[in-house]
Amino acid sequence: MAHINLLPWREAARKEQQKQYLTLITAVALFSFILVFAISSIYSARLDSQHQRNQYLQAEITKLNRQITEIRDLNETKTSLQQRMALIAQLQGSRNLGTQIMDEIVRVVPSGVYLVSLEKKGSSLLINGRSESNNRLANMIRQVEDSELLSEPLLEFIETGRSNQLLSDFRMHMQVKGFDMMQGETP
């Protein structure tokens, strides 16, 4: 048999396999790089899109916070105006209260009862006076109880007059009806 040298063929086949192997590894590496780059680009795009949405939401939240602040300011202004209007209405309603009280006092004080002083503190009236008899004071208390403006008569004391034996000194407390409502208080 003849002697055939197969070494160069094997070496050439080995070099060809190495070349194919390196080409395949390069192709896989290039494909992997392109795949990683594409995935990275997709996620970067999604992340940028989410950042834009977050910025838009932050801008809208800032707008809404400004509007909420404006609404609170308007509500405070509204409350202030309502309080002023209530005060004006109260003043308007109680404008003639002094005159009405005096008219009512004249109506409820019977003849024979003389007023020395009249003092008003809040919704309370304090009357100091003199009376010819206790019956006349009793009539005055009944008329105060029947009054539309005055209520809760309370006779503090009756004492026979020191200087004048005919007249008795007295002190009486009473309330003005509706005054608490005009002041915004509960009765």
Give a written overview of the molecule:
- The chain has 187 residues and is α+β, with helices and mostly antiparallel strands.
- It contains four helices and four strands.
- The chain has a four-stranded antiparallel sheet, covered by helices on one side.
- Among the domains are: 35 residues; 86 residues, Gyrase A, domain 2.
- The longest helix is centred in the first third of the chain and has 87 residues.
- Helices cover 62% and strands 20% of the residues.
- It is rod-shaped and about 175 Å long.
Summarize the amount of helix as a percent range. 55-70%
For the record, give the distance between the C-alpha atoms at the N and C termini, rounded to a whole number. Answer: 136 Å
Could you tell me the mean pLDDT?
Answer: 85
- Number of helical segments with 4 or more residues: 4
CATH class of the domain at 97-182 equals: Alpha Beta
Largest sheet: 4 strands, antiparallel
What is the CATH superfamily classification of the domain at 97-182? General secretion pathway protein M, EpsM
- CATH architecture descriptor text of the domain at 97-182: 2-Layer Sandwich
SS-based class: alpha+beta
Write a short abstract of this structure.
This protein has 187 residues and is of the alpha+beta class. The protein contains 4 helices and 4 strands; from the N terminus they run H-H-E-E-H-E-E-H. The chain has helices spanning 7-93, 97-108, 134-146, 179-182, and strands at residues 113-121, 124-131, 150-160, 168-176.
